[in-house]
Amino acid sequence: MRLSYTLLLAATLLSGAACSRVDVNTPTADPNNGLAQPFSTPSPTSANTVVPVPNNDMPLDTARRPGWLDTRIQKIQSTKQLNPPAQVYRYKYRGQTVYYETSSGADQFSTLYDTDGKVLCHPDGGLTGKGDGNCPDFEKRRTGGVLVWTDQR
């Protein structure tokens, strides 16, 4: 049996059936657009999925800003303008007045402050878009949003 298998293999090799040549021609240009490869990369999307969506029709309320917030605003304005521009909103959250400072873009945390300027949490932003996880209910439980400052430079 071993001899017949060896003879069969030898006959196949000699006949060229096992060694047939295959030509592979990879197209260098797409006939529709002239490009070597069609672009299939999707457009980037925001990673933030729980970004509070402020009402941009809110009136600007500067009369009720605490002193620490004016200092924070001066610090923001002493740096390069952020894109999107920084904004601060006042809300009621868990029975207290809080100030929400927007993030400067993708992968950056937004910040939620109490009335004394203490950081309570980062409700959104970061790599996951869900903030630091310390106030996951901010979007659902906040009320009475008022825009108190926007960087208009």
From TrEMBL:
The keyword ATP-binding does not apply. Coiled coil: none annotated. Keywords: Signal. InterPro entries: DUF6970 (IPR054243). The keyword Phosphoprotein does not apply. Residues 1-20 form the signal peptide. Residues 29-62 are annotated as: Disordered. This is DUF6970 domain-containing protein.
